[in-house]
Structure prediction request, 279 residues.
Amino acid sequence: MRQIAFYGKGGIGKSTIASHFSYSAAERGLRVLQVGCSPKNDSTNQLLTDFPPTILDVLRSKEYDYDEVEMDEIITESPIKFENGGKIYCAESGGPEPGIGCGGKGVVEAIETLGHLKVFDVLKVDVVIYDILGDVVCGGFSLPIRKGYAKETYVVTSGELESLYQVTNVSKAIRRFDKRSGSKLGGLIVNLRRMKNELDIVNNFADLVGTKIIGIVPYSQTVKECGGNGKSVFEGAPDCEEVSIYRKIAEDILNNKNLVIPNTISFKELYDWWLPYIK
Prediction:
């Protein structure tokens, strides 16, 4: 079973990448579980017809008694049908009310609940996807890396300084916990933002941190419109060029054997490196 984490700053498009990867993997006949790991419960929206209940909400209703939780209360099967037996299962960690508690707690509780219920074994899952907020790699959000649940991590980024900074955060977490967990960086997935010298920035940055670019998604109004309608491009715009781009990204991830411990740099070093590209 492959366990893969997608990290990235809020709004960078990691849930779109994760959902299109899940769809592409299921097209190949794989059984996929996508776990949304943020206080919002919108990671799996493009794979379902509605927002599913969150694991944290269900746990709260059971007073955090794992033995009272049933699998079908926290796992929702996507209605999308695949001819070769592929399936997509969805789960959302959820989080606390705004201003109360830590958002990372939902990730911790979600993973512990999935383990307690032996979800991976019961569903016979081939691939688990963790879609994780990467703005702050705190104890909860770093859990898949820290505990080795996700042996391979991909970071969704653009050429913007804030996005690249999140890559350095995740890289530091991977390097820090490598000996304990064995987690590695699989590469970067780029969502272009139409900024000056962006392709040069992301290609040279990948070299700087010692990794590679798995795929580049051009700025796309089609992707935004499909996402707004709660659909992937596979369903919302099956003839668009983005379909082949997402399929190629999924293929390259599934075939990727080149996992690394990335280099790390400080924010000041990153800023000094990045600034000349936009002048």
Remarks:
- The first strand starts at residue 2 and ends at 8.
